[in-house]
Amino acid sequence: MNDRTADPITSLAALDEPTRRRLYDYVVQAREPVGRDEASAAVGIPRPTAAFHLDRLAEEGLLDVVHQRLTGRTGPGAGRPSKLYLRSGRQFDVSLPQRRYDLAGELLAAAVEEAEATGVPVRDALGSKARELGRRIGEARSGDDLVEVLEEHGFEPRTDAGTIRLGNCPFHELAQRHTQLVCGMNQHLVDGLIDGIASTTYTAELQPSPGNCCVVLVPHRARP
């Protein structure tokens, strides 16, 4: 795989080519890894064409590649292993704007487990887990630009008179249904990120407004 696999939209766009999509469908439905000869015969295209498209699918992270001898023979004279393709183990999740319901689920599950083990309220455990995760994310980018890191994580930050407003909530649907719980979790997550990235300029506060995330990053000097 190359750097393009960092963008799931680019990877999935590779399936827009009809021949490539037919090859992909054939490989993922096969019970065993598929070679170039088998794939080209199944789809009815020349072997070089099949090889080109299969390799492109592998580059985009949509297929995995293994090498093995189809004859079952080993040792000298057994021949070179064949290049075979199978469904990638990578999962693709695409949403516009970016949503991270998987992350919310992981945090909620971890909070419930901690609450059961320690007896602390689930809401407190959730805040602790969210802050801990945010701090780890921030520490991995310590010293980097805060706005850039927020952008990479789907918050769509916008600077407004020194305040950073977040144009997107990665947990939007959950926040609509469980506002206090999810917005509180999000605040702890962002506050932990600020702490981990070693930014002493901002703090995360809850300031809900239409069309924006409920969390706002406020300069310390602006706090009452």
Account of the 3D structure:
It is elongated and about 70 Å long. It is α+β, with helices and mostly antiparallel strands and 224 residues long. Strands 4-5-7-6 form a four-stranded antiparallel beta sheet. A three-stranded antiparallel beta sheet has the order 1-3-2. It is 48% helix and 14% strand. It is built from nine helices and seven strands, in the order H-H-E-H-H-E-E-H-H-H-E-E-H-H-E-E. It has helices spanning 8-13, 18-29, 36-43, 47-59, 101-118, 122-140, 146-152, 172-177, 179-196, and strands at residues 34-35, 63-68, 82-87, 157-160, 163-166, 202-206, 215-219. A hairpin with an 8-residue loop joins strand 6 (202-206) and strand 7. The longest helix has 19 residues, at 122-140. It folds into two domains: 3-87, Winged helix-like DNA-binding domain superfamily/Winged helix DNA-binding domain (Arc Repressor Mutant, subunit A, Orthogonal Bundle); 101-222, 2-Layer Sandwich (Muramoyl-pentapeptide Carboxypeptidase, domain 2). It starts with 7 loop residues before the first helix and ends in a 5-residue tail after the last strand. Helix 2 packs across helix 3 (36-43) and helix 2 packs across helix 4 (47-59). It comes from Nocardioides gansuensis. InterPro entries: ArsR-like_HTH, WH-like_DNA-bd_sf, WH_DNA-bd_sf. This is Transcriptional regulator.
